[in-house]
Amino acid sequence: MTSTATSTAPARFGFRLVTPLVASAVLNPINSTLIAVALVPIGQSFGAGPGRTAWLISALYLATAVGQPVVGLLVDRYGARRVLLSGAAVVMAAGIAGLVPVSVGWLTGVRAVLGIGTCAGFPAAMAVLRKHADAAGQGVPARVLSVLSLSSQTVMVIGPTLGGVLIGLFGWPAIFAVNIPLAGISLLLAVFWVPKDAPARPAGERPEPIDVLGIVLFSLALLVLLCYLMAPGIGDLWLLAVAAAVGAAFARRELRVRHPFIDLRMLAANRAILRTYLRQSLSFMAIYAIMFGYVQWLEEGRGFTESVSGLLLLPMSAVAVGAAAMSGRATGVRARLLVVAVALLGGSVTLLFVTDRTWLGALLGLVALFGLAQGLTSVANQTTLYREAPAETMGTASGLFRTAQYLGAIVAATVIAQCYGGHADSGGLHRLGLVLIVVSALLLVVTVADRGLRRTARAERS
């Protein structure tokens, strides 16, 4: 089950349409990385170690992973503009709440609210673009998908650097306060430039029911699973049994209800989109492990300040932005995905040879290698998502795409905590490298074995 292929001919996708979508879509990725250089100073403020501050990472990802498909459904049912405005308002409220330094637990809750509010951007943007393209009788131009992905990549990779500057100037509360103007700009742009939504339903027509029970079961199953993944242990294996039982009840419900929250039959028939979700999850498991785990090692293992640690990630930012900018084509997706897997594998192997005395230039080159993978993966997988997702469920499919990404991020946070323990030293970095070698090798196998990608590549050559 595939959709209209991405077009390369630009038409009717101007600045006024794309800018508010970009402004909304970047709120989530920038919040996912701003926190990277704030973990240590927040921990010092409240006397909390890496085990507690790791929840500042996981809370946003947990809320996002659960919330993205739900928000995607709301986009499909009630319109992108309505959801964008509501999400921006929630983000502004969370930014204000983050200025109240009550405790690590309070800030963890604020991060969860940020995750819910920033869910709106990506599925709403994809739905608006798809609707606009269908109205124009063409696919979304490849350059527009590239701009959307490039903007997210840019703010995500500059997040640690920006966070370091903000902390150096104003202290760690600034990483929460920055959401107030960012979300405010996003809200105003959506008000004036995002096309108004059509009525949720024609006059006199009964609304299509929302599968509330399906949403609850899905959220509960995912929540229990992620709670186990964030702190795995033999004594907590019962959580996996609970997650499996609730997941089975969810599947049974979705296969029987007339209007399911997630169309499992469609997903089962559309294996290409499932493979896209898997690649996105594996790729970002490695990328986020470096973005958070590596910067912790720079601060604690090498003794750099938060500002310097953020600046040392600039090569990752620059290479990622450049790679994403050069990926604005609808062709060559398989080749780019192979480069992603090889770059991640090479970078993971290199981690095994990093020590407290490694030359600074080598450290910069290492993050640049991961930046190459980061810049290519989202654009390539996003292009594949657009090709494979049905138009009527683009919001939900896009939400699941982000859920897959943040599942990888949550596992990465767990891996970091397990590899480092109480202190981010070089031994822990080497253990992290071993885990990432396995992840990257699996990604390479999945990409090479994907018959759908091979068929598309052959069609492009012919």
UniProtKB/TrEMBL annotation:
Name of the protein: Predicted arabinose efflux permease, MFS family
Boundaries of every Major facilitator superfamily (MFS) profile domain copy: 17-458
Subcellular localization: Cell membrane
PANTHER family for the chain: MAJOR FACILITATOR SUPERFAMILY MULTIDRUG TRANSPORTER MFSC
Gene3D superfamilies: MFS general substrate transporter like domains
One Gene Ontology cellular component annotation held by this UniProt entry: plasma membrane
Membrane topology according to the record: Multi-pass membrane protein
Transmembrane regions listed in the UniProt entry: 21-42, 54-76, 83-104, 110-129, 141-163, 169-192, 212-231, 237-255, 276-295, 307-325, 337-354, 360-379, 400-423, 429-449
Organism: Amycolatopsis saalfeldensis
One Pfam family this sequence matches: MFS_1
GO molecular function: transmembrane transporter activity
Source superkingdom: Bacteria
Highest classification ranks of the organism: Bacteria, Bacillati, Actinomycetota, Actinomycetes, Pseudonocardiales
Keywords recorded for this protein, A-Z: Membrane, Transmembrane, Transmembrane helix, Transport
